[in-house]
Amino acid sequence: MATKHSWRDGMSSDNIKGLVLALSSSLFIGASFIVKKKGLKRAGASGVRAGSGGYSYLLEPLWWAGMITMVVGEIANFAAYAFAPAILVTPLGAVSIIISAVLAHIILREKLNAFGILGCVLCVVGSTTIVLHAPQEREIASVIEVWDLATEPGFLFYAALVVTASFVLIFHFIPQYGQTHIMIYIGVCSLIGSLSVMSVKALGIALKLTFSGMNQLIYPQTWAFTLVVIACVLTQMNYLNKALDTFNTAVVSPIYYVMFTSLTILASVIMFKDWDRQNPTQIITQMCGFVTILSGSFLLHNTKDGDGLFPLSEHWKQGSRIPGSTLATSLPMRSFKRLEEDGFDPEAIPLKRPDSSRTT
């Protein structure tokens, strides 16, 4: 007979620690998106843009400030996974969407209207629902136990699919569509990110046990997880930089969150079997909370000053001085978007030849 758990049972002391760390992480990461974006724009003004394969942002202090802010957030996130299940920690990334959206509205002048605010509220409601019905953390006594979970056939099959899909995106789709289709860069980040979270959680558990007196650093599995974390994080960083530089921050943040969270929850359910410790009511409530977050993210995505899914905004189709058809054939969309992001009025700029970065 299944044991019934209230939300109070789920919110153990470890879950509360994980909750606080996850919220702190979201605050830092949400701010880092904006700081890094400013740094990327400055670097792109004097060198080859990251979206075009350049790395001049590595010499930009503002980008490094954003990177350090993100690292602090990731450290807090890393610690959160050591205390709470991924199904609790990962959805709280919605807070970073809210922080990013508000700061983008204030600093980057990326519009946030009433529906965007409603999206933020839905993200908060969904996150709260998930927090109140989170499962208890699985009791793990050794990193060997985590390794056994990671090498079960179900998770190995998932990992193989993720790696294969990532290679296909990187080597086939990115060269052709990376500059025009936002889902390509973010797809790589999200797929690899789901594996990095599982490895981060394993490494966090190993360090938590080590600090409590049970040394896990003597096991090769701990170092194997460390190598996977490093490889995955470097890959995510590279393609997230490309996505941020190529597309509107207000579009990148929610789409990345939705894809990353969905895949991470799936990976966690497969590897750690989080739902085995919950009754159907808790699972359904959590799914409702997640759908609420997705709805909020969708609203944020569709009410921002971005062109991630639509070729031309209604403003350009109907109210611009230049007809949409003429503009579409005379000025490439990426150049058009970059002018808007850099604070220029595209209507006041005469037509010119396509941006050189689009001709290869």
UniProtKB/TrEMBL annotation:
GO molecular function annotation: magnesium ion transmembrane transporter activity
Record carries keyword Phosphoprotein: no
Pfam short name (any one): Mg_trans_NIPA
Biased composition (Basic and acidic residues): 350-360
Principal place of residence: membrane
InterPro entries cross-referenced by the UniProt entry: EmrE-like (IPR037185), Mg_trans_NIPA (IPR008521)
Spans traversing the lipid bilayer: 16-35, 55-76, 82-108, 115-135, 155-175, 182-206, 218-239, 251-271, 283-300
Residue numbers spanned by region Disordered: 341-360
GO cellular component: early endosome; plasma membrane
Keywords: Cell membrane, Endosome, Ion transport, Magnesium, Membrane, Transmembrane, Transmembrane helix, Transport
Cell compartments where the protein resides: Cell membrane; Early endosome
Function: Acts as a Mg(2+) transporter. Can also transport other divalent cations such as Fe(2+), Sr(2+), Ba(2+), Mn(2+) and Co(2+) but to a much less extent than Mg(2+).
Subunit organization: Homodimer.
Family, per entry: Belongs to the NIPA (TC 2.A.7) family.
Protein name: Probable magnesium transporter
Taxonomic lineage from the root: Eukaryota, Viridiplantae, Streptophyta, Embryophyta, Tracheophyta
